[in-house]
Each structure stands twice: as C-alpha cells, then as structure tokens.
Amino acid sequence: MFILSICAPAIAIVCAPPFGAAFRTIVANRDQIQIQVEIIRRATPLWKHMVEFYSTTLYYMGVSSNPQEAIVGKSGWVFLGDAHDISFSQSIRRRVLTDEEVTRWTETLKLQDRWLARRGIPLLYVAAPSLSSIYPDKLPDWTRALLDQPTSFDKILASGKDLPIIDVRPALIEGRKTAETYSKLNTHWTEFGAWVAWQQIGVHLKKLVAGLQPFGIGNLTWIEYFADAGNEYKDLVGIVAPNAWNRPHVAQAWSDFQIVAGEGA
Q1: Local structure of 80: helix, strand or coil
Q2: H/E element holding 182?
Q3: Which residue has the higher pLDDT, 91 or 49?
Q4: What angle is formed at CA 181 by the lines to CA 180 and CA 186, rounded to 5 degrees?
Q5: Closest Cα partner for 123 from 67, 85, 165?
Q6: pLDDT number for residue 71
Q7: Are the C-beta atoms of 191 and 224 separated by less than 8 Å?
Q8: Dihedral of CA 137/234/62/244: which sign?
Q9: pLDDT higher than 80, residue 11
Q10: Residue 101 phi, psi (nearest 5)
C-alpha cells in the first residue's frame, strides 16, 4: 500500500485520457511541454486537487505557489507574474520602455492617427490600466522603492507628441471611493470599473463623432455586488477562493441586439 501510494500520482497521470496525445506532441515538439503538462494536470483529478490545495493554502498565507505566474500582494490581492509578457516587472517599473521604444510607439500611433484622419476616421487610443496602476497600495512592501519611477505609459504621455490618448487611471483610482474598480483574483477591471472608464471614453467619443449618443453616460442608479465571480487564478495557479465582484446598473434600458456569425448563423 505504501509503494502504491507513492506510485499513485504517476499512475493517475499515465491513465489520464489526454496523456497519450500529449506525450506524442511533446516528442514531436519540445516547446509544447508546458502547454501539454497543463492539459494533463487539468484532466488528472488527483494532481489538480493537490495543486489547488497547495496553492490555496499558500495564498491564505500570503505566498504564491508559482511566482512566475502570479504574485500575491497585500490582503489577498494577486498580480500577474512575469510569465505573462513580463507583466509584474512592468507593474513595479522594473521593466519600462526605453527612449527608443517610446519613440517607436509614439511614431506608430501618430502615423495611424494621420492615416485615419485623411480618411475622416477619428482615432481614440485607450489603454486599460494594469491592476498595479490603480491599486499600488496592494503590491508587496518590497516593491515600494521601485514605484517612484514613471511607467511605460507615463513615458508615452510625457513624449510631447500630440496623440489621441485617454488616461483613465485617475478616474479609476477615484472610483475606488464608490466601489472596487478591480478585484482581488482577476486581471481585468470589474464591470463597475469598466463603467467608470467608459464615462471618460464616451464623452471623448461624443466630441469626435457628430450626433453620437453613447450608452450609459452619467446615469448610474445602483451597484450590484457578488460574493464570488471571475476568479482567473484558479486555472492559472490553482487558487480556490471567492472573488468579490460588482456590476453597475444604469437608468437606460439595454437595446435589443443580434449577433450574426460569418456563416450566417
């Protein structure tokens, strides 16, 4: 029984339905190892539940089970790790755009703006901020020394180029006084956070497009709260915990709409 218990994880993995296909894929292309291992893990209950137990236990202790995928900050707030486009290094300003990269970004945006303007098409560039930009107080204490530096977005804004860019960060920070604009276990803004950003975006669009009446501007009636919704880190690192969420309700009624797929369905 002792030997069997030691062998159980390996037996469970080999018996997982996708193991054969995953093994053949890895043999053919070593670059697929991480993806195929994740596929097998999710199809192996013993492995999946043990990872979830381990990761969740560490999460409640304020520690990440996989810092490359996720960094646990204060009060249970989690930030994307560097495995995702060097996300955390960008969040704490350890990696920012070089002057050359800033020039390439601003020149590209300016070219797009001019190309569209010649055709009578307005351009409005909006960057959805990272969680760390709106909740820097939830980052780990050791990151404080790095946060005084400008972000890549700050460097774009300070370039001196006349670019059609909206900075929604101040509005989202101010919105926190009413309700959370982001959540602990999701990389995206909450629905209320999206509404806050939309107030600024919609007003700009009205100026750019004659006769446009954007939906949901300035008519918030109440905010609906959910105890648990949209925990992205359950699949990413195995954290099983509730993720509080919110949704704004506006006075306008939603219009009916229909989505037609490419094949006509």
Answers
A1: strand
A2: strand 182-183
A3: 91
A4: 95
A5: 165
A6: 98
A7: no
A8: positive
A9: no
A10: -65, -40
Residue 220 has phi, psi (to 5 degrees) of -65, 130
Amino acid (one-letter) located at 47: W
β-partners of residue 226 are 245
Model pTM?
0.84
The overall average pLDDT reported for the chain is 92
- pLDDT for residue 20: 86
Say how many C-beta atoms besides its own lie within 10 A of residue 182's C-beta.
Answer: 23
At residue 251, the 3 state secondary structure works out as coil
Rounded CA-CA distance 182/163 in Å is 27
Token pair of 129 as six digits: 């901020």
Structure confidence at residue 114 (pLDDT): 94
Question: In the block, which residue shows the tokens 């013993």?
Answer: 46
Which DSSP state fits 254?
Answer: P
Q: What token pair was written down for 83?
A: 């495995």
The tens digit of pLDDT for each residue in 124-160 reads 999 999 999 999 999 999 999 899 999 999 999 999 8
> Which CA distances in Å does 148 have to 92, 102, 133, 144?
9, 19, 12, 8
Strand partners, 250: 220
- Structure letter (DSSP) for residue 44: -
